[in-house]
Amino acid sequence: MNVLFLCTGNSCRSLISEAVFNHLAPPGWHALSAGSQPTGKLNERALALLAQKGIPTEGYFSKSWDHLPVTPDVVVTVCASAAGETCPAYLGPVLRTHWGVDDPSHVVGTYEEISAAFEQAYAILRARIEAFLALPLDELAQDRTRFKAELDRIGQLAG
């Protein structure tokens, strides 16, 4: 099953989500990320954070949802629409959920404050991905209504 983590720029939160999911996922589950308006480059702080956590990022790049190698089964938007950021709406017959997370790359402050924002975004995303992967995935793959309800519930979890 393919899970798409989607955000506008595909440089930070969706990248973190893709890398963490693929690092933790069981065989047969795969994540990718994309953006509706990709920046074309990955956020250096996000890459450094993932490296610090021992999560590989080789082969990842900022890409458009127009150039996906596979059709996703599940789409998770990670933009923080409550913060005034508009999440793109993926069009297609997929299971959709929203896991809004504030963009740490927009934080202005000291090195420590910016680092704390990246750690917080990582912690929230990792906790949600771990909750996703703890679900009875084979069972839920057969029950889209229940699967969506579980994914929506996970989107409310803090890190």
From TrEMBL:
Sorted alphabetically, the keyword list is: Arsenical resistance
InterPro entries linked to this entry:
Ptyr_pPase (IPR023485), Ptyr_pPase_sf (IPR036196)
Give start-end ranges for the coiled-coil region(s).
none
The Phosphotyrosine protein phosphatase I domain sits at 1-135
Name a biological process GO annotation.
response to arsenic-containing substance
What Pfam families does the record tag this protein with?
A: LMWPc
Protein name in the entry: Arsenate reductase ArsC
